[in-house]
């Protein structure tokens, strides 16, 4: 019976064949331990010299790291293994012998590992991160389907920018100039006016010359948009969504969290509702923590967000930012026109902002005024203005950055490990 590692529990005390790679091995004179992986998981294969023909044991001892194999043996329980099972190997068929595999069990530098990202993905830690990323993606589709959202795909090539063109990649679109999208939000607003509740899930690009552990040049965003929805209602969707994906990982990825050494107790505390503080209160909190030079009207950087997060065990919403440091489309607070109805969700443990959202301006005259203030006049934004001209309604939305969220849930330090092939300021290879 041919199977995969993640299915071996169905074949207890039965003989099966698995196509696998040799991740590592150790051996003594009479027994060899093979660490096998097949993409679905990792299992130890044990081969005793006394139980197999001599040529099989000789083959096992001579196997090289990352050689590909068909391994046949009996599945047994193993309480010492985090996986819970091992294989008593009876037969090995070598498919391809790998020679001089560059990533050995010793320590390697980050640049070396990034140069070999195509191979580094095979390691147990990177495998665990990708499994958790995949679970978050699955949970995202499940949550928004459950809540009645429709998946919509905005364009990646655009003729305009959601928040200005200074950090965009320019490209030539035949006779016109175009940009790689930094957000699908404007198009999602149009979709919401047609379909009610929608979300997108796709790649976005920022030509931001940043080298911090929180930044990628290419990353994935989940961007829901909701018609007939207030800012407060949007915040409730956000916290329910984050709680849902954390719970999904806790339910389905215990082995991977253990592999990463992630504190499950901290994740179990992520339950809605989340605490909320205004930008004004955040300024006060920062000054209490020694950031005496922070002035009202300045945006928060990574040290500020980390300091604020230290006061909470759950993600925290910072609401009502000054209008002048936020995007043109954000709706002013009706009781105070120098701040907008927006919120950033700051993850615990120093992982920074994972969600940015707001109520959107729905008044045509106010949006026309914003166009003038932000020099957005012209045909490129005409269609967006028309959303306020033909049946405008209150609406709100947000964007969650997948890689920062994966980094936080996994407890890994740098977002470069949370995407299969990261694009960084000085990295376009592999």
TrEMBL record:
<dbReference type="InterPro" id="IPR045864">
    <property type="entry name" value="aa-tRNA-synth_II/BPL/LPL"/>
</dbReference>
<dbReference type="InterPro" id="IPR004364">
    <property type="entry name" value="Aa-tRNA-synt_II"/>
</dbReference>
<dbReference type="GO" id="GO:0005737">
    <property type="term" value="C:cytoplasm"/>
</dbReference>
<dbReference type="InterPro" id="IPR004365">
    <property type="entry name" value="NA-bd_OB_tRNA"/>
</dbReference>
<dbReference type="InterPro" id="IPR012340">
    <property type="entry name" value="NA-bd_OB-fold"/>
</dbReference>
<keyword id="KW-0030">Aminoacyl-tRNA synthetase</keyword>
<dbReference type="Pfam" id="PF01336">
    <property type="entry name" value="tRNA_anti-codon"/>
</dbReference>
<protein>
    <recommendedName>
        <fullName>Asparagine--tRNA ligase</fullName>
        <ecNumber>6.1.1.22</ecNumber>
    </recommendedName>
</protein>
<keyword id="KW-0547">Nucleotide-binding</keyword>
<dbReference type="InterPro" id="IPR002312">
    <property type="entry name" value="Asp/Asn-tRNA-synth_IIb"/>
</dbReference>
<feature type="domain" description="Aminoacyl-transfer RNA synthetases class-II family profile">
    <location>
        <begin position="130"/>
        <end position="430"/>
    </location>
</feature>
<dbReference type="Pfam" id="PF00152">
    <property type="entry name" value="tRNA-synt_2"/>
</dbReference>
<comment type="similarity">
    <text>Belongs to the class-II aminoacyl-tRNA synthetase family.</text>
</comment>
<dbReference type="GO" id="GO:0004816">
    <property type="term" value="F:asparagine-tRNA ligase activity"/>
</dbReference>
<keyword id="KW-0963">Cytoplasm</keyword>
<keyword id="KW-0436">Ligase</keyword>
<dbReference type="InterPro" id="IPR006195">
    <property type="entry name" value="aa-tRNA-synth_II"/>
</dbReference>
<dbReference type="InterPro" id="IPR004522">
    <property type="entry name" value="Asn-tRNA-ligase"/>
</dbReference>
<dbReference type="GO" id="GO:0016740">
    <property type="term" value="F:transferase activity"/>
</dbReference>
<dbReference type="GO" id="GO:0006421">
    <property type="term" value="P:asparaginyl-tRNA aminoacylation"/>
</dbReference>
<dbReference type="GO" id="GO:0003676">
    <property type="term" value="F:nucleic acid binding"/>
</dbReference>
<keyword id="KW-0648">Protein biosynthesis</keyword>
<comment type="subunit">
    <text>Homodimer.</text>
</comment>
<dbReference type="GO" id="GO:0005524">
    <property type="term" value="F:ATP binding"/>
</dbReference>
<keyword id="KW-0067">ATP-binding</keyword>
<dbReference type="GO" id="GO:0140096">
    <property type="term" value="F:catalytic activity, acting on a protein"/>
</dbReference>
């Amino acid at each position: 019976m041919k199977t995969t590692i993640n299915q071996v529990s169905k074949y207890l005390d039965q003989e099966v064949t698995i196509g696998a790679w040799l991740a590592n091995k150790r051996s003594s004179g009479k027994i060899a331990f093979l660490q096998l992986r097949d993409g679905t998981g990792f299992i130890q294969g044990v081969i005793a010299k006394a139980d197999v023909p001599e040529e099989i044991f000789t083959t096992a001892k001579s196997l090289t790291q990352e050689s590909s194999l068909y391994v046949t043996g009996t599945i047994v329980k193993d309480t010492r293994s985090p996986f819970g099972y091992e294989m008593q190997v009876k037969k090995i068929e070598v498919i391809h012998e790998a020679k001089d595999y560059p990533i050995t069990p010793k320590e390697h530098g980050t640049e070396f590992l990034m140069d070999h990202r195509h191979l580094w993905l095979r390691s147990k830690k990177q495998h665990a991160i990708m499994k958790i990323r995949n679970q978050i993606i699955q949970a995202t589709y499940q949550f928004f389907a459950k809540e009645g959202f429709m998946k919509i795909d905005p364009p990646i090539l655009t003729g305009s920018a959601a928040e200005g063109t200074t950090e965009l990649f320019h490209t030539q679109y035949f006779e016109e100039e175009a940009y790689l999208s930094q957000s699908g939000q404007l198009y999602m607003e149009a979709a919401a006016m047609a379909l009610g509740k929608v979300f997108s899930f796709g790649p976005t690009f920022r030509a931001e010359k940043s080298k911090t552990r929180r930044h990628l040049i290419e990353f994935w965003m989940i961007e829901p948009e909701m018609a007939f929805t207030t800012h407060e209602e949007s915040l409730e969707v956000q916290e329910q969504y984050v709680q849902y994906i954390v719970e999904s990982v806790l339910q389905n990825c215990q082995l991977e969290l253990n592999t990463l050494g992630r504190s499950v107790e901290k994740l179990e505390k992520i339950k809605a509702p989340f605490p909320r503080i205004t930008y004004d209160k955040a300024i006060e909190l920062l000054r209490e923590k020694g950031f005496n030079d922070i002035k009202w009207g300045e945006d928060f950087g990574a040290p500020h967000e980390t300091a604020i997060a230290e006061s909470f065990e759950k993600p925290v919403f910072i609401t009502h930012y000054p209008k002048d440091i936020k995007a043109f489309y954000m709706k002013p607070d009706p009781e105070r026109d120098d701040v907008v109805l927006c919120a950033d969700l700051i993850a615990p443990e120093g992982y920074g902002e994972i969600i940015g959202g707001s109520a959107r301006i729905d008044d045509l005259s106010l949006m026309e005024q914003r166009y003038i203030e932000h020099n957005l006049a012209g045909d490129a934004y005409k269609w967006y203005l028309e959303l306020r001209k033909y049946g405008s309604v209150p609406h709100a939305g947000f964007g969650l950055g997948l890689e920062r969220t994966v980094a936080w849930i996994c407890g890994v330090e740098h977002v470069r490990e949370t995407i299969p092939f990261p694009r960084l300021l000085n990295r376009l290879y592999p």
